[in-house]
Specification:
Layout: H1 3-26, H2 32-57, H3 65-87, H4 92-108, E1 116-118, H5 124-158, H6 164-168, H7 172-199, H8 206-227, H9 233-259, E2 263-265
Antiparallel strand pairs: 1-2
Length: 267
């Protein structure tokens, strides 16, 4: 029942990606509303998929790694819309589509969507902690996408490539601001999620605690350097990308440790 929704969302995002690449090469994004509408539709179908998964597990749909990655992709699209409206980067959703496509691959190719028996009582603090952590990761993902676009634009300017792509991509100043604001938002959400996790009174695996704290420290150090004016926008962009890649690499292990002692799959 869930599969048509995730497949439709996936196909729409693939179409948006190819549309963006095609029109960037042509130097014409006048019909950007088409990409925006398709991305919004993908977001809606992904929401329906997560709703059905939540009903199947009687909790926030984060119990399996494919579900958690799909939730992360949904949060990235949500924040892409919010960031695009705030900073006038209307095609940010289209530029984040390739990242979300990668996150949806496990759900698209999953043979079945399992259900679970919950070993421990449902704790609202745990659910809030898990969901807000992924929202924080989504903010870091948007910051990383803005950082990639910043590096592309900076390279165009330094190499004096004043072609159509330079004027079609978002302005470098708005990308810098979006990167900074999304990094700050991610740090704030991750901090609140730590507090919620502490209030849940559930045991926290040491590796999960260590990894989460390191990710928070890396992003916080990046923000500290920015506020102290000890780094350049280029360095901030590189740090954003590196920190987000670290978060993605460690995510499967952290997620496995999070659900290991709390859920039992139904055969």
């Amino acid at each position: 029942m869930e599969r048509p929704f995730i497949l439709t969302s996936f196909v729409l995002l693939v179409a948006v990606t190819f549309w963006t690449i095609h029109h960037l090469r042509k130097g014409n994004l006048r019909s950007a509303r088409i990409a925006l509408a398709a991305t919004a539709a993908a977001f809606a179908f992904l929401f329906f998929f997560l709703t059905l998964r939540g009903k199947a597990t009687q909790a926030c749909p984060l119990n399996t790694l494919p579900d958690a990655l799909a939730f992360l992709g949904w949060s990235i699209l949500l924040l892409a819309f919010a960031t695009g409206l705030s900073f006038h980067i209307h095609l940010l959703g289209a530029f984040t589509a390739p990242l979300v496509i990668l996150l949806l691959l496990p759900s698209v190719f999953a043979r079945r969507f399992p259900t679970f028996v919950r070993l421990n009582p449902l704790d609202p603090w745990v659910e809030f902690h898990a969901a807000l952590s992924l929202v924080a990761y989504g903010a870091f993902g948007i910051a990383a996408v803005a950082a990639v676009l910043y590096l592309v634009q900076e390279n165009n300017l330094k190499s004096h490539r004043f072609g159509k792509t330079l004027f079609l991509l978002p302005p470098i100043t708005e990308l810098t601001l979006a990167n900074a604001r999304m990094t700050d938002a991610g740090i704030f959400c991750l901090t609140i999620s730590f507090i919620a996790g502490y209030l849940s009174n559930l045991p926290i695996p040491f590796f999960k605690l260590l990894t989460s704290c390191l990710i928070w420290l890396f992003f916080a150090a990046s923000a500290f350097l920015r506020y102290r004016r000890k780094s350049t926008p280029r360095l901030q962009a590189i740090l954003s990308i590196a920190c987000f890649l670290l978060a993605l690499i460690s995510f499967p292990i952290v997620h496995f440790l999070s659900v290991l002692s709390n859920l039992m799959p139904i055969p």
